[in-house]
Design goal:
14% strand; alpha/beta
Amino acid sequence: MTASSESEQVSRLSDRIDTTVAHPARRYNYWLGGKDNFAVDRASGDQIAALYPAIRTVARENRGFLQRAVRFLAAEAGVRQFLDVGTGIPSADNTHEVAQSVAPESRVVYVDNDPMVLVHARALLASSAAGATAYLDADLRDPERILADAELHRTLDLSRPVGLMLIAVAHFLHDDDRPYDLVARLVDALPSGSYLALSHVTMDFMPPEILAQMAAQAASGRMRTDGYPRSREQVARFFDGLELVEPGIEAVSRWRPEAPLEDLPPLADTSIYGALARKP
């Protein structure tokens, strides 16, 4: 792509950015302390934080889970290819940075449907010389488009194991979207020895008083939600037919933590599950 055509593409995509509606990727960026967000995203983030002050802890712990999962895949499982769907706005220690710090030849394809992510895609495409990165403007709700994309096939060899990263994205799928079918379609396209890393918001650890407040806000119409928390049993369905890596499905802070257990945040402050599983 020439510099002029790339500039024109970014300009067209910038026109798609709606600054009047909160977007999960930009709100997540705000919780992580980033600056790539708008007033509507900050207002939405603050509204959630007023009910659940630990939400910023959840965001940080989820990011830590991503990094540890990628490090495990690259260092212990020998995976050299990654498909990161719902990647979000670039932050510190993105998938390719972690993977290539272990194995410089690692190849990563990022997928997101937020035009602001594509505007910032240069940061995601700064690969090591030995490896490669690519970015697809696509949606998890359309796995066929992802799997048919020529850039995906130029970057990844789907006859070799791939680490499929679905980090804090599946909980934006309503049941009507058939989330289990969507995830299964992507997993089915990958060969034996591939892995699924997934994190998903849950209400399982939230204190009853916070749950009551959230229910009251939702019933009154004062809080609009774009996420759909699921129980441990519901999250486990995403891993049907796969072999869970120890310790299985856990709060993200407790999935292979690098800090002592006593230094980890309480479960009530980490309301998101994480797990990694191998395709046999």
